[in-house]
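Help!! Second protein's tokens look totally different from the first
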Amino acid sequence: MMASIEEKVEEHFKKVLDDLHIRHFGKTETINSSITKALKEADSKSGGSGNNFPDIQLLLQNKNRRDIPVMIEAKGTKGKLEKLTNDGNIEVKSNGKNPNRAVQQFAVNGALHYGHAILDEGTYSEVMIVGINGTTMVDGKVSDPEIAAYYVSKKNDSIPKKLEGFDFVQMKESNIDSFYMELDKLSLTAEERERLKRDKEEQLEQSIKDIHQRIYDDATIRTLLSTNDKLYFFCGLIMAGLTTEGVKPLELASFSSNDDADDNDGRIILMRTKSFLNKKKCPKDKIDMVLNYLKPVFEKRDLWKPVNGESIIKSVFKQIKIDVLPLLESNIHLDFTGKILNSLNDWVSIENDKLNDVVLTPRFVTNLMARITRTDMDSFVWDTCMGSSGFLVSAMEIMIDDANRRIKDNEHREDKVQHIKQNQLLGIEILGNIYILAVLNMILMGDGSSQIICGDSHKEAPKYMRSHTFPANVFLLNPPYSAPGKGLIFVDEALSRMETGYGAVLIQENAGSGQGDVYAKRIMKKNTLVASVHMPADLFNGKSSVQTAIYLFKVNRSHEDDDVVTFIDFSEDGYSRQNRKKSTQKVNLRNTDHALERYDEVAAICLGKKPKTDYYTEANGLVIRDTVTLDGNDWTFNQHKKIDTTPTEEDFKKTVADYLTWKVSAILKGEVTADV
């Protein structure tokens, strides 16, 4: 094995920087107190405590004092520039006995470790990482220097973006402005954002399952907490731990684990939760309602009393602070509370869900429905059976993305985003334990809880509409299928209160084939059925076996008997599903056949646009365009599927072949005589 020439590589690139008149700092030099603090307080590359010493450090500055730290790590052995995963990402956590192997042994990976430390400290929101390497010396010089550079920023959720063809000359003072412009162009693609979201959801789901497994395995906690109590326990620890402006983050050292009824860890959680809700400007009645749910849980002595010097509350909070809070405080919006609910559903049924109606809609379906209802930054979106607010989360994401894309002025854009969160979303949920999840979900989206109501939507919706200005033009719903008309009663009521726009409902399919009571026909009198989408039979992945469909309506235009409806057989959506209790969606929900493209295609078909793919066409029989009656009893795909019984030439050939096969076999067996 050749000896490393790491020191020579370091010297080589320091000379390059000197020749370009770029100020650089060595391992033990200090750029400023923030960077020193970040490197000192972060875990070392070996994973334990200890300082961090990048081989070379820079601090880029332009005329506007936009400062970008640069962390440079050197290696001097063949193949040690960078270690990538199979997906092409920089490997941070390695498999095997040493999870820090890549960070320790590869230049770019080590530089990324330092870069994350800088971002985590909080002073800087962007950093550059550079790996340098070389393997051969010729005449006392490195003959094969190599370099790889990445830009890492919080706006890209700390995902490294590679600078192709990077050269240190780009960092010269005379080139710095154009270099910064190049950095600003490095943003995540839609595909990268979706992959990032899936990865974070996977991490989040696994963390929640691990915590819940721990609670389930601990007989003391398992018998102490009911299902609802577990929901409130999770939510309270999360709200208490989230970073809030003007309030010092809750640290493990904040917990005293006192054995005192008035001064204990449960009181700390309740106090911090109240502070959190106040800082989020939640109304007093909402704060009181949330605290009334949380108090009976966090006042349980067995949760706050110390055992070997530590309470259960402190112990579980430690796990949440390490594994869950960093994911929730990223720039990626996740349906966190839905993950909690699904995790609990894996073990027990929700206590006040007597009719098994609490089934959460998958994110890719809520996103599809928000798209086909033409949601944009000016939409007013509501859901009268909102559950943990999955539909509103998807709609809000689309609305904010649209605002970011269309509004160029920063101040105007920020005002619009706040208006979307505070005024353009309305949700109603009757179950109190699910309602608290919705409140937390919308707060995690950056407020958004202003118009989240707990109550019976049959009563609360008209009352709210009378006392508030909410020009609803997008309605999204997955109703309880045990309600009248399989849930169509909610659709009928909501659409009747809208003057324009679109509504989409995910519902038991036979609600549209005669099982919708009077509501299906009533809906047709005032609204137009635009599309009917037959969904996969295993959509809810073991949590429900109901065959569902999405029905899309145009509001306030009566359906006419010659209106053409688009029917789509979406039973094959590109996902393969399993129902392993202890597995996450990485195992239970796998994209095995272009699922993202398939959902895009169905959205395009429903919107009347030209699809980029052709998985679903009239030619292959998966799309049918046909009329329906005005009775509301023929909305399903299969009712319009025409089966061609005309025999083809291939049918004739097969029949003849089958006959000859039988005839020959029968002759050989002596069962019949051959015709001469």
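Here's the second one for comparison:
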Amino acid sequence: MSRMIQSGFVVGGVGLLLVLQLFNSVQLNNLEKLAIDNQKRLDRLVQGGLRVAAAPGAGDAGSTTAAATNTGCKDVPGSILKCPTRPRAKADHIEPGQVFHYKIAQDPRGLNPYVANGADVSEYTLYVNDQLAERDFDDPSVFNPVLAEWVKTDDNLTFRIKLREGVWWHLPAVDWDSGRYDWLKGEGPEGRHELTADDVIFALDIIKNTQTSGRVSALRTYFEPLESYRQLDRYTLEVTFNEVLYTNRGSILELWPMPRWLYMYDEQGNRFDEATWGLKFNEHWYNQKAIGTGPYVFDTWEPGVKLELVANDHYWNNTPGNGPTFSRIVMPVVRDQQAWVRKLKAGEIDMTQIQPEQYKTEVKSVRDRGGTVFLGNEHIKYAEHDTLGYFYLGWNEDKPLFSDKRVRQAMTMALNREGLVKNVFHGLGVVTTGPFAQQQPCYDKTIEPWPFDLEKARQKLEEAGWTDTDGDGIRDKVIDGEKVDFKFTMLIYGGSNEYNTLADVYREDLLSIGVQMTPSAVEWSTMLKKMDEREFDVYTGAWVLGWDTDLMQLWHSKEADRPQSSNRIGFRNPEADRIAETLRKTLDEDKRIELCHQFHRLVHEEQPYTFIYQRRRPVLYWDHMNPPEFQKVYPYRDLRRFSFASEPSY
């Protein structure tokens, strides 16, 4: 998602602030401290409900009706949010006070969800910080209320949002005993701050500020049509777009609020300058920690060792199955894929996904013999779940080697995708042909995959002018007056044994048609950096897709020139732009599906990606867990939905 905007937020006390700043320029330390203290008081006034052009009846939620059992929710007439029909964690019994151990494969790049890129960061943020609304477990096209009590719109342009009252931010993870952080204390329980409309306003300020970078750069595209936003009272705000777009609803509802009282200040409690605060936000002193209002509180992160969360005793929704189901979540960093199964078997972790080779050895071989006991322990159980996304090779079209679609088509035909899915990924998935998940109506099932055909791949390269003129076995071509050999490097995630095998197989097949490819295996953080800075020829990638289809972020030409955008391959195509723009403006589902199919056919022809496969994920877990339920959308393994039925059995 993305965001941008123009603020319509005007505070009546600004005059006081300007006077204080003027005094600050001519006085010494005492008046400087007074200015900062008064600024903080002004922030609290804003959070406390300083009125800004309030509309009549802004806080009137209307009457409510009873909703689902055990959800702590009531439907509000006129709201676009609908109460869930079940709690997050659905189980006959949840054993209290348990610690859940769950491995992670690498460290995140950071824990600020608007700065740090990566699906893992988004997942951890869900546990720590609530969104305004979340997608329904059974029907992801429906949004359930979370921090927003209700959201109303008559035209899909103006959205009025009423937040829940009595929701408290976590205490920041700082050394409170030192006294250095007393400036962070709020007026709530144990120094907490209450969630207010200003926390949503600040999130929009972050997206609006063009100095902020990182993940927010990709989010910004979704908020380009945002015209204004304003706080109406302490718990109510209004957001207005200038154009009816399919993405407006999701862009607003999936926002994470952010506390101005933390991220607008340095570690000593000095407020950042208004002219440069966006730059300070990118490198904020708290970015390696997390804060939120969610069911779990950030405790510690030891890079390379573990990330730990603890239960939020002040969580706003502690109805059965909706509050924290564990007293603590411990996530050890386990980069070695071979260690995942060993640690599960030893009882060091309670659940793990497994890689295809592990599936072959530990699950498939057992099932082929008619067995049901995995890892030699009857208490270890097996499950699978679908994913909403795909794996691919991303070709850098700004490199001369890959600017011609015939070359990209040749690269796809030289990759034995069917063989890889069968023999390397052991049937845990299917070959895919386009940029949509196969369970989505946007996916055109009539499109046949490009075949694995080395002879046709040779012909395509010949057509594109790549021949072996010097007889050294490697094709070459004169580009800008210089002879260039067809040699390139493929960036692969070094933690994946399967990708290493894929690269080895691919390298041999490419060499047989006169192309030299060198694999380069790197750590995840290095890989993300190289992709962001476009220092690659081709990379192995994967996209986790949202339920609502939008093509702008990944595929529009303007994103190709935006720093750190998701269109890192430099794909530029006027017809693709037209389809993406039209799709965003189209609300009719049948018309949207036809546009998707048009785009699918175009991308299939252009091959900016070599689409590899869409996978199924195998999972092993201990039976003291309640049988895990997997979501249709990411994170499929949402730890908020997991629980123990009994004391651990290992």
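Reply: Different proteins will give different token patterns, so don't panic. The mean pLDDT is 89.
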